[in-house]
Structures are given as structure tokens and as C-alpha cells.
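PT: before anyone asks, these are the final sequences, not the draft ones from last week. 901 residues across everything. Please model them as a single complex and drop the result in this thread when it's through.
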Amino acid sequence: MENTLHITEELRTTFGEGTIIDQPTCDAIPTVWVPWNRVTEILTYLKTKTDNPYRMLFDLTAIDERVRSHRQGQPESDFTVLYHLLSYDRNEDIRIKVALRGEYPSLPSVTKIWPSASWYEREVWDMFGITFDGHPHLTRILMPPTWKGHPLRKEHPARATEMGPFQLPGEKEDVEQRALQFRPEEWGMKRRHEDTDFLFLNLGPQHPGTHGLLRVILELDGEEIVDAVLDIGYHHRAAEKMGERQSWHTFIPYTDRIDYMGGVMNNLPYVLAVEKLAGIEVPARAKVIRVMMAEFFRIVSHLVWYGTFAQDVGALSPVFYTFNDRERIFSLMEAVCGGRMHPAWFRIGGVAQDLPRGWDKMVQDFLDYLPSRLKEYDKIVMQNRIFKARTMGIGSYTLDEAMEWGVTGPGLRACGFEWDFRKKRPYSGYDQFEFDIPAAQHGDCYDRGVVRIEEMRQSLRIIEQCLKNMPSGPYKSDHQLATPPLKERTMHDIETLITHFLNVSWGPVIPPGEAAFAIEATKGNNGYYLVSDGSTVPYRVRIRTPSFPHLQMVPHISRGFMVPDLLAILGSIDYVLADVDR
Amino acid sequence: MTNDIIWKLIIVFGVLFVTLNVAAGLIWLERRLLALWQDRYGPNRVGPFGLLQVLADMVKVFTKEDWIPPFADKPVFIIAPAIIVVTIITAFAVIPFAPGVEIVDLNIGLLFFLAMSSLGVYSVALGGWSSASKYSLLGGLRAAAQMLSYEVFMGLSLMGVVMLAGSFNLTDIVNAQKGLWFCIPQFLGLVVFFIAGIAETHRLPFDLPEAESELVAGFHSEYSGMKFGMFFVGEYLGITLVSALIVTLFFGGWMGPALPPIVWFTIKTFFFIGLFILLRASLPRPRYDQLMSYGWKVMLPLALLNLLVTGGIILATGR
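LR: through. Structure below.
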């Protein structure tokens, strides 16, 4: 709390009393409103001049405020642009909000301060129609270039039924295809240099090495990468827009599909944010169950990464081994949740059900099974000389670069920085567990792998502790907003029956407010920023995913390498296109 | 005289029949073996042990639309896949499968094989070039560079064998191994030849011209139907050829106790085919420049060293 007062006070004394307006939020992250014309100045100050600076741009997004109720104490605004910064030195966040008036407002770009702001600003422009002056390439990023309208504006329809049937006649197809044609000049790229003609290679959107629908346009000199442009959005499913029409409870299954390798790990930041808004305290058993399931999915995700990474480097077999191991976890998931890849099993206030009889045996079996397999993979993958030659020193970045570009998770720890939300800001009872934060030194493809493999071992440690110390007690809170309420009581007293009926038919009404929650997800920091205006549906759901900034960095770290290196880099980053495009 | 001609014809068509069938059967064998090593089943539905999968695949590949991209260089595009099959099958002509069971007893048999395998490069390079697609082009470029440079010491690695046997004739070479198989005195040559052989047939870990995780399908990205099938079968023919040559040159060809010569030859050849497949199941792929520097900086000196030492020993012992 001391720091909190400190930073807003500091801003106030530096920039003048009238410029900084405080806003209380549910998550206790200091939130201040600043005028649009001073935003670059203030952000530069926060990033470079203040003591223990806010080095990382954690998130940059916007809110369409035009139809929002319950905005007491906040400045008038049609559109609010929001900068979420993170300071590693303070272990503190700050949220800077900028109130904008008018239908299609504009404000200065911050791409000069953070290179990672580029994609975020493009996304805000794409989704809200807010212009960022001075942005080098403000074009659509998630929507097709021919799209009309800006989807996250409240007047934009959210359902297909509101839009008329989709048709693709010949002329329209031609227009769409022309729009997708790559023109190097638009990106400041040259077609030739001195006596070299560059080859422009479209890698994707359909390509076996890109792990999904990703288009990388490469400017090649022979096989050497001169420059690259990433085209994303092929996997965009409007998750944030859907959040604005689903009830708080029914949005949970959508979160599963954000990082589709992460299963219930995706539920966690969402339910934690909702619980913060609603003020729900989760019982101990539910917390430990959540931790155990989330760690299982960390292993699932890392196993898929392990196999596919090896495959990207040309080894055919490991992917089959790791997928087999993953199947074992899925059988366990099936026994516990009923679902496999996307169990959607966490609930507001707890988890869906108690653990089934015999779960402990299954967990123990897996704990006995995996370590020897991991040892074997070390031999066939990590210790292989060809593999080392392909990954060591490839696609490396320094810790400074990682912070500049918003890298989180294993990618950050591979630069030798032991930063893990589970340790630094323990959530869901992680402070009760004993585990280490693996880190490596060089920040290259190989080291990113080393970190992930060690993380699997640490996850096993955590799961073992869950198994040994599973608390007894309820698996869901008895808070009135816990959804759905504990079923056992609904048939016995009328109050719970009514709540149950309302919470299931309409969904719970979450009190107005704003809360963000970020966790150490499989691929980095996954955060949900929720705005409630006291309704059964969120007013705004912002999903901050790790893969988005990680992917943005790819051209930066692949210049000067060769085409096969690019595939190694893509493999080592461990992104999921659904996590990028949402 | 007529008996001789009939006998020759039987051998010619026998070899053609057997090699083509072995190549097709290898598709099944490789898939089953890979599956075994990768903890899965592989094709096991069509016929006993999935053996008829090959037949099903053939029906499929023959009935597929044989599409030539409009932007391709049509004549070259059509000829390219034929080259690899023709050259490799021709190279089989000089291999002695058993005493007397060979198509031609050529006194420059080994050179003939090297010539044919060099011609095979054209197939891949031209296929990649004529497709007029960027992935194919990159694949074709890689193939040309890789196969040409590995060709150099593939030839050199065999010179030790030639020195020991005193002949380019493959039958003579086999006969020269009566006391001791050349895999022992020519171990270095064997290693170099085996690696060069993998590179020649562009199999993992040297499958850079195709490199499906990088170049989609490399030089044959644009090929479909039976033209793709020819590349596919060509690859397996290549594996069979290189395995047969390793057996002939280093492992005493048809020689072995008890069993008939042709059986020994087959057993040995399939052992090396299996090794090819095992390698594919276990190794990742080096990068293009790593492959080249490995070739020129490690394999070439090794091959020369082998040549020097063998020459020295022959000179010293006076044979």
C-alpha cells in the first residue's frame, strides 16, 4: 500500500495536481487518469525516470464507455485507452487511463517508448477505431483488411444472426485476395539491394511448421532472413466480444479455448478476477484442486511443446512419445472433469465438482510414470548434438530486450531472470507450496527449452504436494455469487433454490467495478481485465495473452538467421495461435 | 545362345520386378517400423498386417488427379520425376545379387553407379526448378548443393575399396572379400560412404531438400499423383540401391554360411534398409550450412585420409 500511495503522489507532484485523477479499483492496482496530450510524457517518466521504473508494457487496450453505467468518480469519456505497466523492481503494477471524447478519437502513439506497443495499438485501432498518431503502420491486425467497422465498439453486432448471411461471390473473392497480397513497400521493405534481388516467401497461413494459422512473410537473401512481417488474425474468434454477451458464468468454457493447450489453466485468471470483483473467498480444498489441475495442464502444454519443438527441428519421434504421455493426463482429466482438452471445470467460487473416488491413485501413477520418461527425452532431444547445433545461440534475446517486448514466462526466465507470478504474487495458495523457479542464462532457443523441461519437473513436485496435503472441506464457496451454488442445499431451502434458479437462468449479478488478474500460465502471463457495470454480463472483458507479444518479437529475433532457424525460433517460443488472436 | 538370352531376360525383368516391389513394400515397412519405434500401430487395417496398404496406396496415387501447375515449365516438370526412377533402376544393373545373378558384368561397374547417382541429382534439381514455386526452388537449390558436395567424397570413400580389390568390377570386389569383408579394413570408407549415401537419397537427417517442417515438401511441393509417386518410389529405390551397394562393397555381398547367396544378400540389404529407417526415427535435421560444412570440413578430409592410409598400407605391404 505504501508504494501505491507513493507512485500516485509522485505523479501528482511531478505533473501537477490537476493532471492526475485517482480511481479506486477492486484489484488495488493504482489506477490514474491522465490527459491525452500528456500521456507519452507520463509514460516515459514511468518507464525511465522514476526510481524502480515500470519497465514493461504489460497490456494496452481500450474500453468503449459510451453505454456504461456506474462510472462514479471517473472523468467523462467516450473511449478510454488503458496502459497497464509492470515494474519488476517494485513488484507493482500501475494502470494509466486516458479519457477520449468523440466518435473516432485519436491520441499519440507510444511505439517510440515500447516497441511492443505496436501490435497493441494496431489492435485497439482495429477493434475500436481509435487512431494513434505517429504509429508506423496502423493497419488492421486481427480483422481482415477489408472489414467494415470496429468490432469491440458497442454498436457493432456481436452475433452472426445480426449480420445477414455470409456470401462470397467471385468479385468479392478477388477483392479479398487482392487485399491479402503483400506489398513490401508498405512495410518499408525493399525489393532489391545493390545487386541482390530479394525473394519474398509467404510462410503460411497453411504451413506445417507454424503450429496453426500464422502467416510469416519473409524477405530472403538466399536462405537468409533479411526481414519478416507477421500476419495474424486467422484464428480470431472474437473472444472478448463474446465476453460481452455471455453471462459471467457461461463465459468460462470460452476461456478454455484461448490457449487451447492450457485447458483449465485458462479458467483460473478469469475466475480469480471475477472472484475479486465479487469478493468471494475460495475454500482451501478448491484452491488446492485448482492448483493441481492447473499444474497438470502446464505439463500437458509443455509436453506438446516438447514434441512439436523437436519436430520443428526435424526429429520425427518425440512428438509421439510426448503425445502419449499427454493422453495419460487426459485420461486423468476425464476421470476428474469429464472433459479432456477443454474441461471448463473451474467455477466462480470453486470448482465444478469434488474429486472422484480413486483420484489419488491415478495422480500417484502419473507421478511415478513421467520422471523416467522425461529423462529419456533429455537423451533423445536435449542432449542430441544436431539438436544442440540447431538451437544453441539461435533466436536469442537479452533480458532488456525481453522486458522491452513484453516477454513473460519461460521466455523471460530463459534470460536468467527468476520471475514467476506463482512466487512473486502467490495466488490460489501457491505460497503454501515448495518449488523452484527454473531459469537459464542465454535466452536462446535451447535455453527456453531447458526452462520448460525443468518446469515440468517442478510441476510434478507441486502436484505431489497437492496429493499429499489435499485439505478436506467444501469444493466451492457458499458465497451467494458462487455459481452454480452448492447443489446439495438447493433441494432443502427455498433461498438457495431461488439463487440457484436465478444464477443458472440469468447468471449472477457481479457488483460494478474493475479488476484484473494475471497468472503464470503455460506460455507466460495470462491476465483477465474485467469491467462490470453491475449486470449479468461483463461490460468489457480484456484478455491479455502471453503469445501475442511473444509472437510480435519474432521478426526482431530472427533477422540474419536462416529459414530453418525461424522454425526453430517459432517452435521454441511456444505460442498457440488461438492465444494470439483470441 | 538362346538359353543365355532367356536367362538374361529373366534376370533383367526379375531385377526390375523385385526392386520395384521392394521399393513399394518399403513404404509399408517404413511406416510399420517407424510406428513400432514411435509407440503406435502404423497401417494395420488393409490385409494381413496392413500389407495390402501398399496396393491401396498405389490405387490411390494412380487415380489421383495428375495436376501440372499452370506456372510450371511443363516438359521439364514431367521429365524430372522419371529421371530419378530411371537412373536408380539403371544403376541396379551392375549389382551382383549372387554369383551369376547380375544384369551386366561391367568392368567399370562402380563408376557406372557413381555416374547414375550423379544423374539422379538432376531429377531433384530440375523438379524444384521447373515447379516455379518458391518452396520448390529452395528445396531444389538445397538438393543440388547437398548432393553435389556429398557426391565428391562418396566417390572418394569408395576408392579404398577399389584399391584393395584392384578392380572397379563389383563381382571382383565381392570376390576380393573372401577372407575379410572390407567393412573392417575400410571402416572409415564405410562410414563416409554410408553418410554420403543418406545424403544422396536425401533421407533424414539429410532430408533438407524436402524438410517438411520448413519447406512444406521442398522440391516436390507442386507434384501430385503418380509424378509425386515416382519421387516417392525413387527415394525407396535409392535406399535399396545404397543398402545393396554397402553390402556389396563392404559386407561381402552374397557371401555367408549355410544359406543360399541370394538370401544372404537380401538379409544384409534389409538390415541396412532398417538402419536407414531407424535413423529417420531417431535424429533431428541439421541446418543447410551445417550440413555443408560438415561435408566439406569433416567428411572430405576423412575420405582423403582413408585414401592416404589405405594407399600407404598397400604400398608398404606390397599387397
